[in-house]
């Protein structure tokens, strides 16, 4: 294992964080499926900026759908706020991961990376049985997975964060809870959990150490945004997936990986500060608040009624026949 990197900018090997960073996408595209065995191709050092973040391409929709039926359903107990809100996002020939952060009837919000939905075509959110807690039911109605159309509400290219909205759908039962603290509240060397759908087929998580928080300009952006830098680098298809604290609070969105120190790549996640900013700028906090109140109410235990109150020994039956007499038989 590579030794821990101190959370400081004084390391002479570290690239100047004020330099614009070219991010390596973690999407999945069909061309990537044919080239992934050979490994990523790096441009010549002279042609790239001081720090380059790679966003891997996204997986082909067809293989992802076939693998999804076999691999995406198993979810362990205790994953209600991390795994279950994780979905697949599709647009055009690319796909990535996403996280449901609010859901009430007729209004569901999904966070993802902006580059996941930057291509043309309709946006689809792919739901699996585990998103609804139906993975253990062999007779779950309908065909799975199910794809529902979504609208792009807003995107911040500088932070590489986007919010999608799904209408005309009942509230989903599982929603990720956003951290109420800013990124500076994360302790040094925090152990965080990344959740996503690698290669568009494998729902998985792994723990990683937070190396540091840093602000820099991403790709062609001329605006600094805050990011979380992790020791472990994400796999293709994880872009848009959530980064969670040990208490299950969402603190980041996967956007790629970069050579933050010469000769060593690290994971890059948009921070909770950017998430709160985009929700605030598009007036979505009210939806998040309504969703939080709804799910808090659902989690609240019902009062333990006395046995007599639960079921009378001799229940009085109220007939439910129709008010009009049934027509006589001929």
UniProtKB/TrEMBL annotation:
Biased composition (Polar residues): 311-321
Taxonomic superkingdom: Bacteria
SUPFAM superfamilies on file: Trypsin-like serine proteases
Annotated Basic and acidic residues bias: 291-307
InterPro entries the record matches: Peptidase_S1_PA, Peptidase_S1_PA_chymotrypsin
Positions of the UniProt region annotated as Disordered: 37-82, 289-330
Pfam families: Trypsin_2 (PF13365)
The name this protein goes by in its record: Serine protease
């Amino acid at each position: 294992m590579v030794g821990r990197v101190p959370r400081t900018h004084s390391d002479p090997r570290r690239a100047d964080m004020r330099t614009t960073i070219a991010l390596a996408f973690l999407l999945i595209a069909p061309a990537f499926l044919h080239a992934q065995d050979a490994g990523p191709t790096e441009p010549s050092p002279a042609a790239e900026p001081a720090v380059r973040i790679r966003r891997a391409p996204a997986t082909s929709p067809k293989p992802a759908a076939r693998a999804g039926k076999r691999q995406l359903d198993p979810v362990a107990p205790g994953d209600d706020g991390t795994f279950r809100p994780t979905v697949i996002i599709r647009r055009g020939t690319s796909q990535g991961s996403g996280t449901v952060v609010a859901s009430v009837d007729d209004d569901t919000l999904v966070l993802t990376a902006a580059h996941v939905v930057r291509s043309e075509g309709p946006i689809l959110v792919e739901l699996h049985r585990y998103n609804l807690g139906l993975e253990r039911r062999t007779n779950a109605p309908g065909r799975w997975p199910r794809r529902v159309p979504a609208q792009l509400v807003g995107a911040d290219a500088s932070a590489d964060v986007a919010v999608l909205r799904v209408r005309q759908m009942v509230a989903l039962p599982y929603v990720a809870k956003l951290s109420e603290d800013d990124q500076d509240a994360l302790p040094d060397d925090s152990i965080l959990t990344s959740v996503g759908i690698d290669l568009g087929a494998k729902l998985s998580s792994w723990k990683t150490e937070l190396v540091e928080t840093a602000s820099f300009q991403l790709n062609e952006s001329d605006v600094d945004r805050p990011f979380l830098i992790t020791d472990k680098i994400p796999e293709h298809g994880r872009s848009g997936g959530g980064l969670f604290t040990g208490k299950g609070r969402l603190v980041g969105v996967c956007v790629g990986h970069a050579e933050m120190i010469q000769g060593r790549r690290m994971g890059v996640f948009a921070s909770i500060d950017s998430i709160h900013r985009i929700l605030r700028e598009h007036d979505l906090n009210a939806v998040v608040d309504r969703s939080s109140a709804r799910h808090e109410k659902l989690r609240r235990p019902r009062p333990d009624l006395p046995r007599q109150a639960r079921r009378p020994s001799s229940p009085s039956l109220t007939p439910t026949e129709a008010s009009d007499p049934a027509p006589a038989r001929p």
